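Page 42, continued from yesterday. The earlier attempt failed because a stray header line got pasted into the input along with the sequence. Redoing it now with the clean sequence only.
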Amino acid sequence: MDCGTKNELAVRKLPWALAPYCLISWWIMEQFSADAFYRIGISLSELDSAVEKYPRDSNVGGSGLADAFRQMLDAIHIQCLKIDLKVSLGCADELLDMLLRHPFTIRELQDGLRELRNTIRREMEVCFFFYMPSRQTELYDQKELFGSLVNTKFPSIQYDMIEAGDCYAMGRGTACVFHLMRIMEVGVQAFGNKLGVLLVTDKNWQNILDEINKGIKALPSKGVDTVDLSQAAANLYAVKLAWRNEVMHPSDKYTLEEARDLVGQVKLFMEQLAMLV
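This time it went through. C-alpha cells are written below.
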C-alpha cells in the first residue's frame, strides 16, 4: 500500500468521533462501518481457508503464497484504518511485517491471524453506543425548544432549555424536571418584574405569585394586557401547584411522561411571558 493511500484514509473521521454526544442514525453507522466489518470478516475467512490447505510447519516465505497473504492483509489494514481500529491496525501491520521476513511458517501465520481476530473483537467490545427511541429524538439538542422569541427574550435559559430536552431524550425524566424548574425561576422573576414586584430574587414563588395577582387585580379590567397577564399567571400557578412543591423533595422521581407534560407547560408559560415582557 502506498503512503498516499494510507494518509488519505488516516484523515477520515468516524461520524461519532467527529460529533461526539450527537445523534448518529443507524443508517449512517451501517453506511460507514458495516461494509468495513464485512470486508474484514471476508478477508479473515479467506486467509483462514488458504492457510488450512498447508501443513502447519511448512515454510511459506518467498513463495507466491506470501504475496497472496500480503494482499489479503493489506485489505484488512485498509478496513481497520477506515473504522479507526487502532490496536487491530497495529496487529495487522505486525503480520504484514512478518510476511516480509524469511522464512516464516503456516503455524506462525495461523497464530498471528488468531491474535488479529481476537484483537478486533476486543477492540469492538470497548466501543459503546447509546440507543435513543425515535419518539424522544425530537427534543434532543434543540436550540430553540421554546421558540426563537423565548430565546431572544431570555438568553440566560438557553443552557437549561437544551439540557431539559436532552435529559428527556436520554430517558432522564427527573433531571429534565430540575432543568425546567431552573427555567421557571427565571420566568417567575421576569414576570414579577413586569408587574413591579420588588426584590423578586429574594422572594419565593408563592410570595411573587401573591404580589403578581395583586398587581393584575389593580389593572384595568379591559386593559390590553390584563387578560394575557391573567392567563400567564394561571399557567404559572398550575406549574407551581403540580410540580415545584414536589420537586423540592429529593426522594421524588419523575417519569418521562410527567417530564414531557411539564416541557409543554413550561413552554406555554415562557411563550406567553416572552410576548408580555
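Notes: The chain has two domains: 3-125, 134-276.
Reminder to self: strip header lines before submitting.
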